[in-house]
Structure formats: structure tokens, C-alpha cells
Amino acid sequence: MNIILLGPPGAGKGTQAHRLVAERGMVQLSTGDMLRAARTSGTEMGKQVAAVMDAGKLVTDEIVIGLIAEQLDSATDAGFIFDGFPRTLAQADALGELLESKGASLEAVVEMQVDDEALVARITGRFTCGECGEGYHDTFKTPAVENTCDNCGSVGSFKRRADDNEDALRTRLMAYYKDTSPLIGYYYAKNMLKRIDGLGEIDEVAGRISGALDG
Ligand code: AP5
Ligand code: MG
Questions:
Q1: Which listed ligand is nearest to 34 at the C-alpha?
Q2: Residue 145 CA: distances (Å) to CA of 12, 23, 92, 137, 141
Q3: What angle do CA 100, 103, 105 make, to 5 degrees?
Q4: 178 CA from centroid of ligand 2 (Å)
Q5: Which residue's CA lies nearest to atom 43 of ligand 1?
Q6: Handedness of CA 88, 100, 207, 35 (dihedral sign)
Q7: 196 vs 109, 125, 172, 199, 213, CA distance in Å?
Q8: Residues near ligand 1 with C-beta < 6 Å?
Q9: Which of 6, 65, 150, 214 is deepest in the core (most CB within 10 A)?
Q10: Model pLDDT, residue 101
């Protein structure tokens, strides 16, 4: 089953994608994570996108479609979770064509609805493990042992994102409402949209997503 997790910055796409990977063996394809990896490894493309990402603007369709196209041959029986992709109508069209060219299809688009106030609280408290990518929050999800990742046990590897500040967040939200939210209507018209309430405990939200996928 190939699915999209659609939602604004901080909606919990990455958090819930990690759960689906652990529970169902699905493969997470996060364009945000791929772009950050390109920056860390210092590729030409990574250097090109750094300032755009830090400002909270969208990277070009061409770059992100290329990143996804490279990954679609990975083996997966359980399916892909597209996290943070597509983000424009052009990307949505490209994804449909790419999947079709592989004889695959998209089964569901889960729209995670979270109000803006909660998004700001989630984004400003977020940190992740630099080793395994597990996500945490200063208030909502703290590690069991201070400074130690619950998932991989690495010590002192936590980091915060350069675009998790108020200015960049405002730009990211604007990009979501302007360029990405039209995808809600696009997938509704294709009869693929599943809307879920993204507020509440992480476990509760996970239950709603499972219900939407299995129901
Ligand atoms: P990307 O990395 O995709 O960022 P984003 O969409 O802004 O989303 P986030 O990763 O910030 O939020 P999330 O929904 O994953 O939330 P999370 O689970 O971490 O993109 C970054 C940049 O890359 C873009 O701005 C753009 O420049 C570029 N880019 C990427 N893809 C692109 C594309 N396709 N086209 C063009 N440009 C692209 O949760 C957030 C926090 O909340 C965490 O601390 C978590 O612990 C906490 N939390 C999660 N769930 C809950 C809950 N239920 N209750 C309380 N806290 C919770
Ligand atoms: Mg994310």
C-alpha cells in the first residue's frame, strides 16, 4: 500500500511515518530528510538548496521529483509512505506518472489536520536524534534517559533544525497554504483523501491513521 502523509509543518508526518515503518515495515520517503542528508554530505545540490530551506521556502519541483524518482525502485512489499512529498500540483502529477510507470499506484492520502497554534508549539520544541532520525519534543515526547536516544541508544546526538524558528516557520506555513493545500481538493476528487484529526496524543493519532488505512 503506497500512501501520502499530507499536512502542514509540525503536523506529525515524520513521527507517524516512523511508527508505520516500525509497525508495518513500510518504507518512508521524506524529501525533507533527503534534502537535509544532501546538505550534510555537502553535495552540489545540497549547497544549492541550503538557503532556500533555511528560509522555509520550497525547493524546485525538478530537484524533489528527481530525488523521489531515484528511490522508487527500492524493494518494498508493504509500500511507500510519501512524507512531505508531493507539495505542489506539479509534484502530485509527477508522482502519479512515476508510480504508473512502475506498475504501481497510490492507495490513500492521509490529511493530518492540526491548528496553527499547536503547530508552532510542536515546531519550536522539536529535536531529533542525529543518528537514527527519531523525533522528540521538549514537552510532548522527551527521551526516557536525558540526552540518550530511546530508539538507538546514542548519547549526545540530539540536534535541532535550522528552519525551526518563528520566521522560517511563518514562511513554511505560507508555502503550505498557498502551494500544498490545493492537493487536498486534488486527492479528494480522486477519491483518495482520508482526513484525520492530528491533535491529541501521538498514540491516539497513530490509531486514527491505522483506522483510516485499514477501514
Ligand atoms: P520537511 O522536512 O518536510 O518539513 P515540514 O513539512 O515543514 O514538516 P516537518 O518535518 O517540520 O513536520 P512533521 O509533520 O514531519 O512533524 P514531526 O513529526 O517532526 O521539509 C523541510 C524543507 O525542505 C521545506 O521547508 C522545503 O524547503 C524543503 N522540501 C521538502 N520537501 C519538499 C518538496 N516536496 N518540495 C519542495 N521543497 C521541499 O513533529 C513535529 C514535532 O511535534 C516533533 O517534536 C514531534 O515530537 C511533535 N509531535 C508529533 N506528533 C505530536 C502529537 N500528536 N502531539 C504532540 N506533539 C507531537
Ligand atoms: Mg518531517
A1: 1
A2: 23, 23, 41, 14, 12
A3: 60
A4: 19
A5: 126
A6: negative
A7: 10, 23, 21, 9, 11
A8: 7, 9-15, 31-32, 35, 52-53, 56-59, 64, 84-85, 87, 91, 122, 125-126, 135-137, 140-141, 163, 172, 200, 202, 205
A9: 6
A10: 94
Q: Three cell numbers at 119?
A: 503547530
Taking the centre of ligand 2 as the mean of its atom positions, its distance from the CA of residue 127, in whole angstroms, is: 11
The CA dihedral of 110, 128, 36, 57, to the nearest 10 degrees, is 60
pLDDT at residue 76, as a whole number: 80
In the block, which residue shows the cell 525538478? 62
Q: Indicate which atom in ligand 1 lies nearest the CA of residue 18.
A: 18
Give residue 78's pLDDT.
Answer: 93
Kindly give the parts of the chain with pLDDT less than 50.
none
Q: Which residues lie below 8 Å from residue 214, measured CB to CB, with a gap of 6+?
A: none
Residue with cell 542525529: 130
